[in-house]
Structure formats: C-alpha cells, structure tokens
Amino acid sequence: MELKHFFAQDIEGNVIPNATVYVYEAGGTTIATGLEDKDGNPLPVPFYANEDGLIQFAAPDGVYDMRVVDGLRDYTLKVQAFDANLVRTINVDSMTKLDEMNSSALMDGQTVSIQGSIFTRSAGQWRLDSLLTAGAFGILGNGEDETKRVQAAMDYLGEIGGGTLDISGRHITLLGKINGHSNTRLYGGGTGVLDFSQRTEPVNGDQALVTFRGTSSPVILLTQDAVYGQNAIHVHDASQFKEGDLVEVSMNDEGSYPDTSVGVKSGQLNIVQQVDVSNNRIILDTIIYELKGYSVANGARVRIVEHPVENIIIEGLRVIGGGRPVENSGGDLGIGIFFGRNVSVRDCVMERCDGKSIEVISCYHASIENNEVYLDKIGTTNSKVSYGISYSSSYFVDITHNKVVNARHGIISSHLSSSLDNKYYGVSRFINIEGNFITGNYGDLSSSGYSSSHAGIATHTDVEHLKIKGNTVSGCYLGINPRTWFIDIEGNTIEGCKSHGIYLSGSFHNLLFKNNVVRECGSFLGFQSSTSENQHDNLVFEGNHFVSSNGVFSIAFSEDIETGISRGFVFKGNVVAGSRYTGSYNAVTILGRVSGIIEGNILYDNASGDLRVERATGLYITDNRMEGGVSIQETDKTWLINNLAGSVGLSKGNTNMLVEGNNVKKLILNDPSNHSNFFSGNTILG
C-alpha cells in the first residue's frame, strides 16, 4: 500500500474544496477495492477532498484512474501506487502465463519470476533483468526432443536484443539443430548438456549442431587493383560503406597461398577505417597482405558483413554429437560460428562431434578457450575430416588451454570443403595457439589408421602471423606441421609422435622454432620441399632440445638440388642427442642449397654421426660441440670454425672452404689437392 496525496483543482489551478473522488481500476469504470484512508481505515468510493482540496488515499500496488468531480469540473488522472518497502515479485510457471496476465493492471517496476528468470514491467513491456532459465520456456531435460523449446528461447533472446540462456543442470535431447543470435550467451555452468546423439544424419559444411551465423552483402567488384602494403580499395559507389563495417576482401585466385588439399582463395578481413565518397575509396584498418595484390583481372572484390553475429559467448556446455554412423563417413560439426565478431567458446566439453568439434569461419576477434574435445578412436584407415578445432578466413583468433583427444588434426587452419570455397575465402591471420594439450591415439600405433592422425597442430598454406606457444602434443602421427609463413613456434613439448615431432612442408618461410622440447619421436624434424614454392627463407631453430629418436632420420632439411634454396637458415644453441638411426642420415642432415649459420649446438650420443652437409652454399658452422662424426661434401663457401668434433670428413667437391681453429680427433680429406680450400690452426687430437 502507498499513501497518495493530490489536490483537487479547477482549470485555472485553484483548489476545489470537498470535491467528489472516484478511484477505478485502470482503463475502465470498475470501482477499485482495498482502498484505505491515511489512518489505515477502509475507504469507500466515492470519497471527498477536505476543505483545503487535499485528496488522500492508500491503494494496493497497481495502476488506477482517479476521477475528480465538482459541478461542471470533471477530470481523470492516471495514478500508480507503489510501496518500495514491499517485495513485489509475482511467481508464474511459464512464459505463456506471463503473456496471459492482465498486464494493463500492472504498474511499471512490477517484477515477475518465471522459473528463476526475472522480468520487470517497463513502459508497458516486459524487460528481462536476469539470465533466462531453460525452465522459463518449459525445457525440462526429460529425454524427449526439445529442439523447438530451445530454439524458441534462443529466438526470444534475439528478439529482445540479447541475453543469457542458462541450461545448467539439464540434459537436453535434440533431434534438430540450434541457431543463435547476436548478443547471446549460451550457458551450461558445467552441468548443462545438449545431446544430439540420437540424430541419424551428420550435420557439417556450413551448418552445425549449434550455429551462429551472420550475413554478408553480395559481392562488390573493385575498380582498381589493391596493392600489397597499401590500405585502400576502390569501388564504384563508396556510399554503400560506413566506418566500422566489417568487410571481406578477396579474389578468384589462390594468390600466394597455393594448396592442393583445401579450397582457398586469397583474401582478408578488415574494419573500414574511413570512407572517401568523393573518390569512391575505402580505407582499411590494415595493409593489403596479399603479396600479389588483389587484381581486377582476377575478380578482386569486397563484401560487407552487414549483420555479423556479435558478442557471442558459448560457455560451460557439454555437447554430444552422433560420432560416425558409418565407417569412413563424415561426422558432425559441433559448434560453428560464421561471419562473427567478438565471439567466445569456453569451458565446454565436446564429445563425438567427429567432423569438426569447434569451428570459426570469417570471424574477427574470436576466443576458443579451456574446452575439452573428445573424438572417436579409429583404428583403420579413414581419410575423412575429423578435427578438434578449426579456423579459416578469420583474424585475431586465440585458441588457448584446450584439450583435444583423438583428432586427425587437433588444431588446424581452414580445410574448407569445395562446396564452401566460394562462400568463404580461407586465409587467416594473427592467430595465437597457446597452452593446449593434444594427444592422437587416432588408432593403435601399429594400425594403418594411425597414419591418418596427421598432426596435433597444423596449418595449410592459408595462415600467416601465427604463434604456437607452450603447447603439449603427445602421441600423434606428426607433432606440429607448419606449411606456411610468419610462424613462431616456441616453448612447446612434443613427445611420442610416431613419424615426426616437427614436419615442415608446403610453402613455409619466416619461421622461428625456439625453446621447444622434442623427445621420443620417430624423427625430430623433417623437411619437405614444395614443388610450387621452393624457396624457404629465414628459418630459425634456436635453443631447442631434441632427445631420443628412432626414425629414418632425426633432423633433416632437404631442398630440391636443382631449384630449391633456403636463405637465412639459423640452427643455434640446440641440443640433439639420442638418435638411434644407423643409416646414411646423420643426427642433423642438410641437403641442398642452404645458406646460413650452424652455431653453438651440442650433439652427442647419436648412432650415425652428428652432422652431414651436402651441396650447401654459404654455410657458417662454428662453435659447435659434436661428439660424433661430421661429413661435408660438394659445398661452396662453407666455413668450419672453432668446433669440437669426433671426426670431420671432407669429401670431394667442396670449394672455397675455410677450416680453422677446430679440435677434432680425426680429419679425413678426400680431396687435398683442391687449393680453393683453406686450413688453419686446427688441432688433430687422434
């Protein structure tokens, strides 16, 4: 009850003494009940103002019409009674009951609780003032299909501009798919389960079991070539754009990113920084990264992501997919976010989403953090996609502190199917992969299916400016497989990988591999020269520990003898020990036209010798401790200075060589008559 105070007034504002007062329920002529006078006594209607025109009455919380009558003066005021000291929350069972309530009689500020969700009356509408509980939409988790109820709750949040759907404590069966909207948090609190396991058909491609999707404009063709290093594009009509737009620039060409296994078009995501309408020019927030530029001749184009799904949080869910219904078939895409901006998937457990468990495509600022991914163990040959976490066409993605078990690739860039390569271009930049744990067990170590495990962390030739830091990769076929450029691989532990700890393939360069530990792998580090890009520049390996391998080779760099070349090669401060291979490869083997420096390394306890160099051009080998043998042949401009080695064998074909200040047990010269080589100050200990 609230005591109200008014004065009866005429049209000129003069008080009217003893005016007659009626109080009705809002919007009608039904006399209000439950009124009291200022002393708390029942007050019948009508009642009267006092001699000073003062009207006083108390009424239950609500909205009323107060009518004042005196002679020809007859007017009505809308009155709201509200006692702030009283608890005013009404409890109802469902959203349907809320709609059925006589809302016109409810005042602004009235609150209603529906299964723990709090709604407040404001300006005649209901406003969600808390998270939305599953119970508010009748989501019970009782084993029946609840796809429509979950979708209705998600759509409601979309309609009101966003909010949190809390499904914690419920195991929800879904035979359909779920689609979400911007500004939505889907929350499970570690106990909420979305169970799709009873579905019979896998969901993949650009659909997921849980999908958040934005929309983009039709393609807008560029009118001028976009040039590498600049940050402008030109179109016919720049007035279509505005500052802050998310745009996608691409063309009908792979550009600098050739890849036979994935559908990739050169492209990038950007934010529009400035619109120059008079010159039909768009200024982007970063430079054009494509080395070849985006050419009009190759269909250079831009799309506006008109309605990105923004501000998405998927948190604390357990999502169960259908596995692989048939051997060698594709599985489900668990959580998929397309054309997103500021999105996060965290603290989720993904089970049997055997296509891709979590994927972001064409997303700008995404975080995939502290999730656990479990895929089916497969012990036979299976070439179908089975990935833990995948990203493509995306900028500024953090993939941190996740656990992935049994994936063909634990974390992988792109792998867009051919049906999607015209929808999304493929290339990603500024990716951080840190603190993850990935283990293979794709199949038993002795099975043919194990080789399908591929790598714990891999790229295709569709990502640059990538950091792989502080991860643990264990029991995969390959540990880390970079196939592109501008990659920092630092502080990782790679162990028990059957084929290689590190495998370099594709068009890689500008790669830093630092302070990693690679142990108990088939081979420490392998190198495959690409037929499409045979130049591998600025490869730096520093401060790593390579311990115990039993493969065909331990560390091998093999450039194509005729066309391949690696410049700026640095192998410095590494420890290489325990290689058990006894064939023609040494612990560190460099074949082909490699130039650079090998400095300050420690190599010992390697079965077939420590270092073998062939056909290098301009290689500086200095201050290394090599317990075993060193073999150098057919090189040009190789300097061997201040090393400690067991034996050094210099075969025929070396030219312009400097051998100075070394301490060796044995020096073998197979071509002592070659006067282009120079020997000085060496100590032969044997």
Describe this protein's structure.
The protein has 686 residues and is mainly beta. 3% of the residues lie in helices and 46% in strands. It has a 44-stranded parallel β-sheet that branches. The protein has a six-stranded antiparallel β-sheet with strand order 17-22-19-20-21-18, with no helix packed on it. The longest helix is centred in the N-terminal third of the chain and has 13 residues, at 147-159. It is elongated. The relative contact order is 0.05. The mean pLDDT is 86.
Q: Alpha-carbon distance between the termini?
A: 106 Å
Radius of gyration over all CA atoms, rounded: 36 Å
DSSP strand content? over 45%
Q: What's the helix count?
A: 2
Secondary structural class: mainly beta
Residues in helix, % = under 10%
Biggest sheet statistics: 44 strands, parallel
Question: Mean of residue pLDDT?
Answer: 86
Q: Say how many strands there are.
A: 60
The coarse overall form would be elongated
> What ranges have pLDDT less than 50 throughout 5 or more consecutive residues?
none
Short summary:
By secondary structure, the chain is mostly beta strands.
How are the secondary structure elements laid out?
Layout: E1 2-7, E2 20-25, E3 47-48, E4 54-59, E5 62-70, E6 73-81, E7 89-92, H1 95-100, E8 111-114, E9 117-122, E10 125-128, E11 132-133, H2 147-159, E12 163-166, E13 171-173, E14 178-180, E15 184-195, E16 210-213, E17 220-221, E18 232-234, E19 246-250, E20 267-276, E21 281-284, E22 301-304, E23 309-320, E24 333-346, E25 349-351, E26 356-369, E27 372-374, E28 387-392, E29 395-400, E30 403-405, E31 409-413, E32 428-434, E33 437-439, E34 455-458, E35 463-469, E36 472-474, E37 478-481, E38 485-490, E39 493-495, E40 500-504, E41 509-514, E42 517-521, E43 523-527, E44 539-542, E45 545-549, E46 555-558, E47 565-572, E48 575-579, E49 588-591, E50 593-599, E51 602-604, E52 611-614, E53 619-622, E54 625-633, E55 639-641, E56 644-650, E57 658-660, E58 663-669, E59 678-680, E60 683-684
